[in-house]
Design brief:
Blueprint: H1 26-41, E1 46-48, E2 58-63, E3 73-86, E4 89-93, E5 103-107, E6 110-116, E7 122-128, H2 130-141, E8 153-154, H3 157-167
Antiparallel strand pairs: 1-2, 2-3, 3-6, 4-5, 5-8, 6-7
Bound molecules: cobalt (II) ion.
Amino acid sequence: MALRNILKEGDETLLKHCRPVTAFNDRLHILLDDMAETMMDAEGVGLAAPQVGILRRAVIVLETNVDEGEEPYIIELINPELIETGGEQEGPEGCLSVPGVYGWVKRPDYVKVRAQDRNGDFFEVEGVGLTARAFCHEIEHLDGHLFLEVSEHIMSDEELEAYYAQDGEA
Ligand code: CO
């Protein structure tokens, strides 16, 4: 596995439409492994292939809604499609391609995604809360969209501090 360079806002690659993955081969597996290492190194909860310069429909999301004592795990989504959404949440959202910037974004609180795994087999997966937010955010990357487009406003440091103080998080 190897760390890949995460493209930053301003790079035109991030604005492009990604093509479907058609070859479920070693090259895809290496990409997914590298993306996992890159995301964990950057302490993110999601990463899309275009963020590392690959214009293919592949994303990974860290599932953090796990039972106490269990480790978060990575969900790989190839050619993902949102097939169901429900509820609503709002809160700060960021992106590894837009470091240090958080915007207030409304998202569904529940989503169901249909995708293929790294071997091409279809499956469905549900996400709630942060995971639902990450599914939406990462899938939007595949069509060249950044969260800045759907953010109501960019949060100031003071707003962020107040939000997390109230939320009891660091
Ligand atoms: Co992002």
